[in-house]
Amino acid sequence: MLVCFRLSFVFFLLTAALSSCTDVIPIDLPTAESELAVEGTVTDQPGPYTVLLTRTSGYFNDQPSPAVRGAQVIITDNEGAADTLRETEPGRYQTHRLRGKIGNTYLLTVRTEGEEYRAATEIKRVPPIDRLEQQHKVKEAGWKDGYYVLYNGPELPGVGDYYRFKLYQNDTLRNKPDELIVRDDALYDGKYISNVELTDRPFRVGDKVRVEALSLPQDYYYFLNEMFTQINNVGLFSSPPSNVRTNVLNRNASGPKAVGYFAGTAVQSATITIQP
Amino acid sequence: MKTRIKSALSLSLATSLLLAAQPALSQTGGAVGTGTPAAGNATLSGYLLDATTGTPLVGASVFVRALRTGVNTDEKGFYSLPLPLGQHVVTYQVLGYASRNEQINLTSNLTRSPRLAAQNLQTQEVLVTGSRAEDHVKKTEMSVNQLDMKTVKLMPALLGEVDVVRSIQLLPGVATVGEGATGFNVRGGGIDQNLVLMDEMPVYNVSHLFGLFSAFNPDAVQDMKLYKGGIPAQYGGRLSSLLDVRLRDGHQAEQVKVNGGIGLISSRLAVEAPLIKDRTSVVVAGRRSYGDLLLKLVPEQRDNQAYFYDLSLKVNHRISARDQLQLTGYRGRDAFNFANVFKNNWGNMGGTARWRHEFSPRLLGNFSGVVAQYDYELGVPSGTQAFNWSSKIRNYTGKADFTYLLNDRNTLSAGASGTRYQFEPATVKPLSAESIFGGLKVDEQQAGEYAAYLENEQTISPRLQAQYGLRVSVFDFLSSGTPILEYAGTLGQHLEPVNPRTYRNGEVVKRYANLEPRASVRYTLTETSSLKASYNRTAQYIHLVSNTTAASPLDVWTPSTNNIRPERADQVALGYFRNLGGEAYEASVEVFGKTMDNQIDYVNGANVLLNKNMEGELLYGRGRAYGAEFFVKKNQGPLTGWVSYTLSRSERQINGINADRWYPNKYDKTHNLSVVGLYTLSPRLSVSSNFSYSTGVTTTFPNARFVYEGLVVPVVSGDARNNYRIPAYHRLDLGATLKNRPNPNRRWQGEWVFSIYNVYARRNAYGIYFRQNEDDARKTEAVRLSVFGSALPSVSYNFNF
C-alpha cells in the first residue's frame, strides 16, 4: 500500500539532495466566478448524515467558505425512502431518519438560487479489519524512529474494490494533504493484508489510534485520487493542475456548475492504544 | 602559429572558391587541364586518414585543380571522384593537415588512401568545427547543427559533467521544459519526438539521474549532429528531429591511448587500442558516479546506494580495402537502493553491427543490425510488501542503405529497414509468499515498422542544388494473443474498455502506412551566401506516455494501436545562410512552420502507470509550431562560440482540454537566447562561458478553491490549461581549462577543468505550485521550486596518455 509513498520519497530525496529549494512567493490571481461546493456522505453507520453546502472562493482566501443557506436538500434511496435535510447550522444540512445500507443507491437533490443540482452514489462492500498491531522502529532505514500501527485484514476477492483509510490520533483525523490515503485493489486483489504500515509518520506511546477502512464507489475513488494529486502537486514530476471531477450536476446543463462530491461509503474500524 | 592557421585557411578558401566556380566553367566551355584527355571516365576512390592515428578525415577536399573538379570525404573519410582517363595531379587537403599532391595515371578505376600528417597540435585544437564553414553555405542541408565533442568539452559543465544534451539545448530551436528535465524539445515537439541514435542504436531515455546528466559518456562520443528539419529520407519514425551521436572510432590507433577524468559526480576512463595493426581497433569507455561511495562513510547511509554508470564498446575492423565492420555496444544504468526498503533501477542497453561494403567506386552499401532496449525495475525486496515491478521496450532492426554516384550531378540514396518492437508496459510480481501483493500484468504488445526510401541529391545548375526523396513507412500493430479493446465514454474523462476482440498471436490488428516526402533546395546567391528551403513530412508510430511536467524514468512507450493513431508532422523551413569575414563567421536565419496531427494528451487526473486501460486516459488533437531562429557562430581565432536566438510559439488543440481551444505547450518559450564563448588565452589556458535567457515556460494557475473534508482543493475556472507563465529563466556559467605544462618527453597529458554553473546564483523557477499551508490548513500559498538555488562550482581533472 505504500508504493506511491515510496516513489515520491525517492523523487523528493533526489531533489532535496541537489540543493533544490522551495520558497513561498506572492502571486496575483484574478477572482473567479463562485460555484456551489458540495461535501456530503451517506454511510452504512447510523445517521444523521451531513451535507455541507458552500461556495467556492478566491484561491488565496483564507476565510471559511461562504455557507449556502436556505437550500432545499433531499436524499432519496432506491428503496423509495426520502429524507428532506434540516439546516442545523448555516450551510450544514442533516438527515432525520435515513439509514444507509451496503448495496443501496442514493440520490441527492439540492435546490438553491433557482438551480437544481443532483448527485447519485451507492454504498459498496467493505472488508473487516482483523486487528491492528504496533511496531517500534528504531534506526530502520527509510523510517523515522517511533511507533507504527500495522494493519491486518483481508481484501475481498474480485477486482474493483476501492478504499480510503483514515487514521485518527486521539480522535483527531490525521488530515495533511499527503495523508489522504486511497487505494484500488488491482495489486492486492483477494490477498490478506498483513502487517502493513498505513503511514510513514510515527505515533507516540499512549496515543489512541483508530483506523477506518471506507469502501468507495469507483467514481468517488477517482475523485479522491485526483484530489490527492492536485493537493500534493509539487515538484519535477508534478502533473498539470486541473479540476477534480464532481458528481454534482446541474439539471440545466448550461447553468452554473458545481464542485465537490456526494458519496456513499461503508465503514469498518479498529482501535489500538500504543503501549510502551 | 597564427600565420599557419591563416595560410591553411586561405588555402582552403581558395579551394572552395575554385570548386564553387567549377560547374559554371564546365558549362561555358568545358574543363581545360594539364591532364591528357582521353576517351572515357574512371573513378578514383579511397579513404583519407590521419597519418598517426588513422582517424578518418571527414569533410576533406580531394580535387584536381587543373580540372576544377573535386569532392569532399564523407563521415568515414571516404571519397569517390569520377575523372577522365589520363594523368592528373590530385590534391588532398583538410584544415590542420599538410596537404598532399599525388600524380596519378588513371587507366581504370583506382583506389588511393593517402594518410595526411597533422600540421600542429595547437592548430587542431583551435578549430572547433567538425565540418568546414563553407558547407554551411554550400550544402543543401538546413536546420542542422553539428557539435564537435572538443567544443562541448570546453564549455562550462554542470558539476563538471560534460553533457551532450545540455549543449544541444544551447542551439537555436531547441528548448527544455525545465532545468534538470530529461530530453529536449525541438521546434515545438515533445521529447519523445526526437530520434536519438547512438551509432544507429535508438536511445529511449537520454538521461541519467532523472535528467540532470545525459546518458552519453563524453569520452566515448566523437561528435553529434542535430537535424531539426530537412531530415534525410533515410531516417524516420520520429516527428521532430534526429540527433545522430557518433561514438569514437578507435582511430585504427597505432598505440594504446587512455583518456580519463575524475570529477565531482563521476569518473571516466576510455581506452583505445589497436588489436590488429591497421585493421582492427577497439575503444572501451566507462563512467560511473560515486555519490554512493561517499554515502558509505556515513553510518546511517551505509546501506543506501545511488549511482549511475555507462559503458560503451566499439570495435572497428577493416576486412579488406572495400569492407569494413563496426560493432558498438552500450549499457547505461541508474540505480537507487534504500537499504532493504526500496530498490529502483533503469537504463538503456543495446548494440549495433554494421558492415560497410564498397561494391564499386560508385556504389556503397551499409548493412546494419541493431538491438536496443530501455527497461526499469522497482520494488521492495523483502517483507510483507515485497514486490517487483518491471517494464521494458525492446526493438530489433535490420537495415540496408545504399549510396550510388550516378554521375557528377546526381547522388542517389536508397534503402530499406524493418523493425520489430516488443513492449512490456508493466509486470508486477509478489516476491514472497506472505506478500500483500498479488500480481498485475499490463498486456504485452508487439509491432512491426517497415520503411523504404529513395532520395537524390542533384546539382541542377551552378547555383541550384536539391535533395529530394520519398520515404514510405508502414506500421503493423500486432496481436500478442490478449484481448484487443476499444474505449467508449465521455470525451475528456476516463474511458471504459468495450468490445474486446481476440486475434491470433502475431496477427495484424491494425496497419498504418504513410508517404513521407522530403525535399531541400539550396540556391547560391554569392560565394558566401545562399538561400535554402525545405519541406518534410514525418510519421511517428511509437509514443512516450508521460503525464508529468518532466518525463520520469517510469514513463512507458506505447505503440500506435487500434486506438492510438500515428503522429504526423509537416514542416516547411526557409533560411538565409551567410559566411562573414572569410569563413570566420557562419550566420543563418531560418523561419519554420510546422503542423502536427494525432498529438497525445491526457484526461484530467489521468493515471498512466500500472493501468490496464491506459489508452482510456488519452486524448488526441492537433499541434502547431512556428518561429524564427537566428544563429551566428565564430569558428576561428582565439575566440570562438556562438549566439543563438529563437523566437517561437508552440501550441496544441485537444478536444477535452482548455474548452477545446488552442493552448501553448508546456515547453513553449517565446524568446530563447544562448551565448556561448570559448577563449584561448594561451596554449595552456582557455576560458569559456555560457549565458542563457528564455521566457518562462507555461503553467496552469488555479483561481478558486473549495474545502473538502478539511482539505483545500484548487479550482481552475473554465478548465484552462497553461494560462500563465513562470518567471523568465536566465543563467550564466563560467569555465576554465588549464593544461599541464607541455613536456614532449612525457606521454601523460593532464588538464584541470574548473566551472561555475549559475554564477550569479539565480533561483530560477522550475515551476510554481499551489498548496495548503502546512501549519494552518485554511491558508493557501504559491510556492516556487528551483532545481538549483545557488552557484555550483566544480573542479575535475582529465588526463590522457
Automatic annotation (TrEMBL), chain A:
Signal peptide: 1-22
Entries under PROSITE patterns matching the protein: PROKAR_LIPOPROTEIN (PS51257)
Classification via Pfam families: DUF4249
Keywords noted in UniProt: Signal
InterPro entries in alphabetical order: DUF4249
Name by which UniProt lists this protein: DUF4249 domain-containing protein
Classification of source organism: Bacteria, Pseudomonadati, Bacteroidota, Cytophagia, Cytophagales
Automatic annotation (TrEMBL), chain B:
GO cellular component, one term: cell outer membrane
First and last residue of the signal peptide: 1-26
Residue span, TonB-dependent receptor plug domain: 160-238
Main location: membrane
Keyword list, A-Z: Cell outer membrane, Membrane, Receptor, Signal, TonB box, Transmembrane, Transmembrane beta strand, Transport
InterPro entries in alphabetical order: Beta-barrel_TonB, Beta-barrel_TonB_sf, CarboxyPept-like_regulatory, Plug_dom, Plug_dom_sf, TonB-dep_rcpt-like
Pfam families: CarbopepD_reg_2, Plug, TonB_dep_Rec_b-barrel
GO terms of molecular function: siderophore uptake transmembrane transporter activity
Gene3D superfamilies: Carboxypeptidase-like, regulatory domain, TonB-dependent receptor, beta-barrel domain, TonB-dependent receptor, plug domain
Domain of life of the organism encoding this protein: Bacteria
Keyword Ion transport in record: no
Stretches assigned to the TonB-dependent receptor-like beta-barrel domain: 317-758
Subcellular location: Cell outer membrane
Bilayer topology annotation: Multi-pass membrane protein
UniProt key word NADP: no
GO biological process: siderophore transmembrane transport
PANTHER family (alphabetical): HEMOGLOBIN AND HEMOGLOBIN-HAPTOGLOBIN-BINDING PROTEIN 1-RELATED, TONB-DEPENDENT OUTER MEMBRANE RECEPTOR
Family per similarity comment: Belongs to the TonB-dependent receptor family.
Protein name according to UniProt: TonB-dependent receptor
Taxonomic path: Bacteria, Pseudomonadati, Bacteroidota, Cytophagia, Cytophagales
